[in-house]
Automatic annotation (TrEMBL), chain B:
It is a multi-pass membrane protein. Keywords: Membrane, Transmembrane, Transmembrane helix, Transport. The chain crosses the membrane at residues 35-57, 64-90, 96-116, 148-173, 185-218. Pfam families: BPD_transp_1. This is ABC transporter permease. The keyword Membrane applies. Residues 31-215 form the ABC transmembrane type-1 domain. PROSITE patterns: ABC_TM1. It is found in: Cell membrane; Membrane. It comes from Micromonospora parva. The keyword Cell membrane does not apply. InterPro entries: ABC_transp_perm/SBD, MetI-like, MetI-like_sf.
Length: 228, 246
């Protein structure tokens, strides 16, 4: 009898099992809920911080460089290291994960919103000024609506990458579906558990992305519909 | 809520203990593991992505494939791939599955930049080369490849930084690397291991930032002077950028 990793060939360890899904539906649902809620909160907070930052970078050009540079450096820091910096101060709670996720999502959103705002044609800007629009009214009536495609791209990228990133939260015990993946790994490579969680992770990213595309269509009814 | 008393002070103490450097499983060991895994993964990624990207670019086809690969890897959680591959390879927990998993994340930036690098070659240069009687293979080797070098370097930087960052997660699957220092710190508990956690974070982050700076310099060096400014920076294609975070 070979002892060497015999469980790998074991038919009792299938890639996918409805039995597992049925028996553990509560755990799985709880993990999905935590995953989705962490993603949602992180993206919403990141948008709320990123929009004012981007407008600052747009209005005051000298600020654009530093804002993008700082968020770029934060983005280069590996997620594990970022969580390691935050955890000793905030403890091993969901807050630690949330702060890390927000910091990462920030860069993606800021970069795309700034690009979107800079794409507003100068003629349009001048026309708005000529019509007597002030800075604020121009921002809300002209600049931001025209930058919506950039904003949407940023939010979509941030959402999809946040969904993947939540799993690293395993480090502090709040990794959503990552908890299941890691538990499956520790549980003698329980393939069904790893696979179910990984597939749900990808599915969550796809569903959220499609939702955002739908929202984008609703808020930009003037943009041309492409068959893609 | 448990928090560490003075994580930074503890971290300085931890880093200053010579034993933490030279012990088995100390910083030097982990650094060696980290660099080995990363280098192998990037090399494997280059081996797969560069020929494919250059070839597709040369043919001018497969742009959709390149985008698809970038987007698909964006949604896959690193942790999932790191845990699934040991099962696929049936080789247990050695370095191979970790290296392959990391190489998968190195492919999109390498591929996208190799493809773009060849595609952006001046069509007139290409026509001139054809007019001089260069064969298709000669055209790729003597004209398109040299013109693509800055892009290859940019892709290499993105991929390497990303792999070094992601290699920290190898510690979850007992793959070693600097991430192990952080994990051990969490194992001790935040109150006692806070310093070690922060120290590990500093090492991982420092290595990633160092790689970014050094490879950025290399990228500049291999970019011919007239191309250094005015060119849209393609070093970080958007999709690849997002995967870089894991």
């Amino acid at each position: 009898m070979s002892f060497r990793l015999s469980y790998l060939a074991d038919p009792g360890n299938p890639w996918f099992s409805w039995q597992y899904v049925r028996d553990n539906s509560d755990t799985i649902l709880a993990a999905v809920r935590e995953h989705a809620s962490l993603t949602g909160r992180a993206v919403v907070i990141a948008v709320l911080i990123a929009l004012p930052l981007s407008v600052l970078a747009y209005w005051f050009r000298p600020l654009a460089g530093p804002i993008l540079a700082v968020s770029g450096v934060v983005y280069t820091i590996p997620s594990l290291a970022l969580f390691a910096f935050i955890a000793p101060y905030l403890g091993t709670g969901a807050t630690t994960v949330l702060v890390g996720l927000v910091l990462y999502a920030l860069l993606l959103i800021v970069r795309n919103v700034v690009a979107g705002l800079n794409q507003v044609p100068p003629e349009v800007r001048e026309a708005a000024e000529g019509m007597g629009y002030g800075r604020w009214r121009r921002l809300f009536r002209i600049d931001l609506p025209l930058a919506l495609p950039g904003i949407v791209t940023g939010v979509r990228l941030a959402t999809v990458s946040t969904v993947a990133l939540v799993t690293v939260g395993v480090l502090v015990g709040h990794g959503g579906l990552g908890q299941l993946i890691f538990a499956g790994f520790q549980n003698n490579l329980y393939k069904a558990e790893i696979m179910t969680a990984a597939l749900l992770c990808v599915a969550l990213a796809v569903v959220l992305d499609l939702l955002l595309i739908l929202v984008a269509r609703l808020v930009t009814p003037w943009s041309p519909r492409r068959a893609r | 809520m448990i928090v560490a008393a003075n994580p930074i002070g503890q971290a300085i103490t931890w880093i200053n203990d010579p034993l933490n450097w030279t012990n088995p499983g100390g910083m030097l060991d982990r650094l060696g593991e980290h660099l080995t895994i990363s280098a192998l993964a990037v090399a494997l990624g280059c081996l797969v992505a560069w020929p494919l990207g250059l070839w597709l670019g040369h043919l001018g086809r497969g742009g959709g494939l390149v985008v698809l690969i970038s987007n698909a890897t964006l949604a896959i959680p690193t942790l999932a791939l790191l845990t699934i591959l040991p099962v696929v390879f049936a080789s247990g927990f050695g370095k191979t599955p970790v290296v392959v998993a990391l190489a998968v994340f190195a492919v999109p930036p390498l591929l996208a930049n190799a493809y773009t690098g060849v595609r952006q070659a001046d069509p007139e240069a290409r026509d001139a080369a054809r007019g001089m009687g260069l064969s298709s293979a000669q055209l790729l080797r003597r004209v398109e490849l040299p013109l693509a070098v800055p892009y290859l370097a940019a892709g290499f930087r993105t991929a390497a930084v990303q792999v070094i960052a992601t290699a920290a997660l190898a510690s979850f699957v007992n793959g070693g690397g600097l991430g192990q220092i952080i994990r051990t710190g969490f194992g001790i508990g935040i109150a006692a291991g806070g310093g070690q956690i922060v120290a590990g974070g500093v090492l991982v982050a420092g290595l990633a930032l160092l790689a970014e700076v050094v490879l950025g310099g290399v990228e500049r060096l291999v970019t011919p002077k007239p191309l250094r400014r005015g060119r849209q920076r393609l070093g970080r294609p958007r999709a690849a950028d997002a995967t870089g975070s894991a």
